[in-house]
Amino acid sequence: PIHSTVIEVHEPKSELPEEGWSFEEALLDKGHCYAIAAQSDEEKSILDGSEIKRLDWKELLKDAVPYPVSSASLSS
User: Fold this and answer.
1) How many CA atoms lie within 13 A of 14 on its CB side?
2) Predicted model pTM
3) Mind giving me the DSSP string for 40-68?
């Protein structure tokens, strides 16, 4: 990846009820990017030795709205 960012979630929230989730997004090149979510206590990169499941974009949508963003949160 030419750019990578890791975001860790330490406190439970209504849209992310469990602690310990990390999100990693990376830009492979100017036209291709990916994002990964993993539940892990490890501080290293999610990509280091983790099993990755590729999801179809339809699996990432809930009621035609990207999950976990809801239409209510978009209007505020």
Assistant:
1) 3
2) 0.28
3) -S--S-TTSS-------GGGGEETTEETT
